[in-house]
From TrEMBL:
PROSITE patterns per UniProt: ADH_SHORT (PS00061)
Keyword Acetylation: no
Family: Belongs to the short-chain dehydrogenases/reductases (SDR) family.
Protein name: SDR family oxidoreductase
Any one Pfam family match given in the protein's UniProt record, by short name: adh_short_C2
Length: 296
């Protein structure tokens, strides 16, 4: 897609129906049909993050991959975290970052583990030579028809991934962040408009909004900004790997005024803006991209 032209956004990217495409959790971007656009060919940088150092969780695929590619093209060095099972997706991202002549750091591991979260930050800081952008983006979303279907193990896994890890990683990063640093958390439209089948997940996304607003007030005196992004439906492996019933994967995004899901690259510039000094007056904010529904 040539970015110097204007397009009708409703027809810019694939529209449903899509094929059913069940994948085992955590899912791979390289198995999706149609393939998501993370900006591999479309995102063009212009030096907006020159010399910055970023850690992105869930940077192998989906929204995190789009942020990783864009950050590298804007001149940042980037570390990504992901699960071991996602190595094939992660390799593609590492190669794309290196193709920009930037440092790319791959740190696989499970962020449900507190000790690993602290190691992750230390290792990213070591290998990047510092840290000034933290993107808490990894997430777990597994649909359940009823409240009664949510086991303690499910609840624990969702809260550990989406909330505990955000707390642990941000705590570990804080001593390294200095004036001008930016923390960006991936929330969701479900924080404001939860569907029936994502009860535990939606709870965590509402909490991420709240964490963002509290922390923003707490660290403003240190010159650190904290914001969140609240996406609507985006075409990522989160959805076919248990995030939605397959019937809903087939018509994913159809209920949006734009009639289609977002593609990860359509959020790339939001993550760039929030990381860069250009958004210096924005902290404690939540940025939406929901295909015309007006949330948050
Ligand atoms: P994705 O599957 O591409 O990314 C999620 C990533 O989370 C995975 O790649 C994986 O690396 C990571 N992850 C999950 N559990 C982990 C664990 N225990 N340890 C380490 N890493 C783990 O899907 P995505 O949609 O790009 O998701 C990114 C964020 O966007 C998530 O927080 C998700 O909740 C949020 N979000 C997605 C949508 C959507 O429609 N796709 C909408 C709103 C919010
Ligand atoms: Mg992934």
């Amino acid at each position: 897609m040539e970015s110097d032209r204007f397009f009708d956004p409703t027809s810019q990217y694939p529209r449903p129906p899509f094929s059913a495409q069940p994948q085992e959790w955590p899912g791979l971007a390289n198995k999706m049909d149609p393939p998501p656009d993370h900006g591999e060919k479309s995102y063009r940088g212009s030096g907006r993050l020159t010399g910055r150092k970023a850690l992105i969780t869930g940077g192998d695929s989906g929204i995190g991959r789009a942020a990783a590619i864009a950050y590298a093209r804007e001149g940042a060095d980037v570390a990504i975290n992901y699960l071991q099972a996602e190595e094939s997706d992660a390799r593609e991202v590492i190669e794309l970052i290196e193709a920009e002549g930037r440092t790319a750091v791959a740190i696989p591991g499970d962020i449900r583990d507190e000790a690993f979260c602290r190691e992750l930050v230390d290792s990213a800081v070591d290998q990047l030579g510092g840290l000034d952008i933290l993107v808490n983006n990894a997430g777990r979303q597994q649909w359940k028809a009823s409240l009664l279907d949510i086991t303690t193990e499910d609840f624990d896994a969702t809260l550990k991934t989406n909330l505990y890890a955000m707390l642990w990683i941000t705590q570990a990063a804080m001593p390294y962040l200095s004036e001008g640093a930016s923390i960006i958390n991936t929330a969701s439209v479900v924080a404001y408009d939860p569907p029936e089948v994502l009860l535990d997940y939606s709870m965590t996304k509402a909490a991420i909004v709240n964490f963002t607003k509290s922390l923003a007030k707490q660290v403003v005196d240190q010159g650190i900004r904290v914001n969140a992004v609240a996406p609507g439906p985006f075409w990522t492996p989160l959805q076919p790997s248990g995030g939605q019933p397959q019937e809903h994967v087939k018509n994913f995004g159809e209920d949006r005024p734009m009639g289609r899901p977002g593609q990860p690259v359509e959020l790339a510039s939001v993550y760039v803006l929030l990381a860069s000094q250009e958004s210096s007056y924005s902290s404690g904010q939540v940025y939406g991209a929901t295909g015309g529904k007006g949330h948050p």
